[in-house]
Design brief:
Length: 303
């Protein structure tokens, strides 16, 4: 198959988005004939029609829609690669691309940023709010340098090191004030029959798993009447009296006055947050950051 040229991708995306060759040519500041030729050659290379042409303009075919999504992503990644390379060169490669799960943004991210910025003056940190699974994918494809994730986690070639063990806490509102008189050792047993606000197994799978593991260890399955995507939604549901819940204790600062929060012993349930990176892609900058955040053996060996 003939090689596909980058300009053919740009031309095709421009035509598909503009809906006409004339408008695309104007946007690209080129004449229409060479634009038409390049798109036609792209179709010949692929062996399929990407656009249906008529007097009113063009319409993207079903095959063309699939190719358009991939072509747009390729151009976006290329643009980002160029921008990040230029920025790294201008800053002396002092850019850290860091992922962070939502549950780590209050408990761990501030201290991590303070430590690395204190150790590396002028460091530019770009933080992305991503769940653990997406961070592992981003590490693999090179769009992240390191990530604050929930443990345990597995990924090909990924090294991890624990940074924080955050105990779970039982939270409830006035509607369930009877729990105030329950001893700490009997709290989980007492909440068993009560309506429960759970994290979504789809959108917050590891927080959901931590809640479920804690309840199962106490001998019951929670009566999950409500499901939320994040801790902020969970707190609002609990404050509305819809149920009781378990959450990482570091979120207690977000609770409204009067909402009860009783931290459980770590033996009953905890959320472990850690740092993830690829040992075979440790740049000099990332090496300095690992040395700042991790004990000697972890930083030196990549795990």
């Amino acid at each position: 198959m003939r090689a596909i040229e980058l300009r053919q991708l740009r031309y095709y995306v421009a035509v598909a988005q503009a809906g006409s060759f004339r408008k695309a040519a104007e946007a690209l500041n080129i004449s229409q004939p060479p634009l038409s030729v390049q798109v036609r050659q792209l179709e010949e290379t692929l062996g399929m029609r990407l656009l249906d042409r008529d007097a009113a303009g063009v319409r993207v075919t079903e095959s063309g829609k699939v190719f358009l999504a991939h072509a747009t992503e390729i151009l976006h990644r290329l643009s980002r690669a160029v921008a990040e390379t230029q920025r790294a060169a201008a800053a002396g490669s002092s850019v850290l691309r860091l992922g962070c799960v939502s549950s780590g943004q209050a408990s761990l991210l501030p201290s991590v940023l303070a430590r690395v910025r204190g150790a590396i003056p002028g460091l530019d940190v770009e933080v992305q709010d991503l769940p653990t699974r997406e961070q592992l994918l981003a590490l693999a494809d090179g769009t992240l340098d390191a990530g604050i994730i929930q443990l345990p986690a597995e990924g090909s070639g990924i090294a991890v090191a624990p940074l924080l063990a955050d105990p779970l806490a039982l939270i409830y509102a006035d509607h369930f004030a009877a729990l105030d008189g329950v001893a700490d050792d009997n709290l989980l047993e007492a909440m068993g029959p009560l309506p429960f606000v759970g994290f979504s197994p789809v959108h917050a799978s590891q927080l959901h798993a931590a809640q479920l593991a804690c309840c199962r260890a106490a001998g019951f399955i929670p009566l999950a009447r409500h499901s939320v995507r994040n801790a902020y939604g969970l707190i609002r549901y609990v404050e509305a009296g819809l149920g009781v819940s378990l959450m990482p204790s570091t979120y207690r600062s977000y609770l409204a006055p009067g909402t009860r929060c009783r931290v459980l012993p770590r033996s009953q349930g905890q959320l472990v947050l850690g740092l993830a990176w690829l040992p075979d892609r440790v740049s000099p900058l990332l090496g300095r950051i690992l040395a700042c955040l991790l004990p000697g053996p972890d930083a030196a060996s990549g795990g």
